[in-house]
Amino acid sequence: MKKTINCLLSLLVLLSICGCQNKTEKEETEVHEEENVETAPQESETEAADGQSLVVYFSRTGEQYTVGVIDEGNTAIVAKMIAEHTGGDLYEILPEEDYYPYTYNELTDVAKKEQNENERPAYQKKDIDLSAYDTVFIGAPVWWGDWPMIMYTFFENEDLSSKTLVPFSTHEGSGLSGFDKKLASAIPSAEILEGLAIRGNDSQNKKDEVKDKVDNWLNKLGY
Ligand SMILES: Cc1cc2nc3c(=O)[nH]c(=O)nc-3n(C[C@H](O)[C@H](O)[C@H](O)COP(=O)(O)O)c2cc1C
Fold first, then answer.
1. How much helix, strand and coil, in percent to the nearest 5, is found in the chain?
2. Hey, is 215 helix, strand or coil?
3. 52 Cα: distance to centroid of ligand 1 (angstroms)
4. Which of 66, 104, 142, 179 for mutating ligand 1's site (highest number of atoms within 8 Å of CB)?
5. Can you give the residue range of the structural domain that contains 80?
6. Is any atom of ligand 1 closer than 6 Å to the C-beta of 169?
7. Is 136 in contact with 167 (CB distance < 8 Å)?
8. What pTM was computed for the model?
9. Element at 207 (helix H, strand E)
10. Over its length of 223 residues, how does the chain's per-residue pLDDT go in tens digits?
11. Which of 8, 16, 76, 88 is placed for a possible disulfide with 59 were both Cys, Cβ 3.0 to 4.6 Å?
C-alpha cells in the first residue's frame, strides 16, 4: 500500500513539472510574438518607402520674388530636405540652353510667353535610369499658376507611367496650384500622392519650420 502511495506521489510530482515546463515554453513564445509585433514595421510605414526614390526638381537662382537675389533656389532647398529625409537621389532639371533672365520681372515675361505659347523648353538629359525608381518626388516653383513649361517637357519625355509620383511646390501665395491634378492629367497611369506646398520665402528664411513641415508630410506618407 505504502509502495502504491509513493508511486502515485511520484507521478503527481512528474505531471506538475511537465505542466510548468509547458507553461514556460508557452509564455516564452508569447513574449517573442509580442516582440515581433513591436519590431515589425507598420504597413503604413513601408507602403511608400519600398524601394529607392528619386527627387526631381526645377529651381531658379538670381532675383526671385520677395527674397531678393538668391544663390540657392527655393525649390532646391526643399528638394534637398526631401532627399535627406528619404535617402533618395537628386535630379535637377536644367534647361538645355539657359535663356531664363536673371532679373525677376524679365523672368516673369519669358515664363508668361512660354505658357501662352504652350512651349516645351528642352532640358539637359541625364544618365539616370528612371526605371530603377518606384517613387518620384517632383517639385518646381509655381509659375503663373502652373508648372513651369519645362516640367511638361520632362513629363512627356520620360517614362513615369505606373510610378508613384509625389508633387511639391514653392510659391508666394498660390499653394500647390493644382500641381497634383495637372500631373495626373499628364501621366494618367501614375499614382499621385498628397503633395506639399511651401512658401519660397520660408524655404530661405525659416528653414527649421520648413524642415518640420517636410518631415511631418513625409512621415504621413510612410517615410
Ligand atoms: C515666372 C514666375 C512666375 C511666378 N508665378 C507665381 C504664381 O503664379 N503664384 C505664386 O504663388 N508664385 C509665383 N511665383 C513665385 C515663385 O513661385 C516663388 O518665388 C518660388 O519659390 C521660386 O522658386 P525657385 O527659387 O525654386 O525658382 C512666380 C515666380 C516667377 C519667377
1. 50, 20, 35
2. helix
3. 29
4. 142
5. 47-221
6. no
7. no
8. 0.81
9. helix 207-221
10. 455 545 444 444 334 433 434 433 333 333 333 333 333 334 334 444 557 899 999 999 999 999 999 999 999 999 999 999 999 999 999 999 999 999 999 999 999 999 999 999 999 999 999 999 999 999 999 999 999 999 999 999 999 999 999 999 999 999 999 999 999 999 999 999 999 999 999 999 999 999 999 999 999 999 9
11. 76
Cα of 32 from ligand 1 centre, angstroms: 54
State the CATH number of the domain containing residue 156. 3.40.50.360
Radius of gyration in angstroms for the set of CA atoms belonging to the chain, rounded to a whole number: 29
Would you say the CB of residue 174 lies under 6 angstroms from ligand 1? Answer: yes
Return the pLDDT at 9: 45
Does residue 74's CB lie within 6 angstroms of at least one atom of ligand 1? yes
Contact yes or no for 93/154 (Cβ under 8 A): yes
Q: Do 82 and 171 share a structural domain? A: yes
User: Are 54 and 28 members of one domain?
Assistant: no
Query: Which ligand 1 atom lies nearest to the CA of residue 66?
Result: 19
**DSSP code of residue 103:** S
- Same domain for 128 and 95, yes or no, is yes
Tally of domains in the chain? 2
**150-166 per-residue burial string, b: 16 or more CB within 10 A, e: under 16:** bbbbbbeebebeebbbb
Q: What pLDDT shows up at residue 3?
A: 52
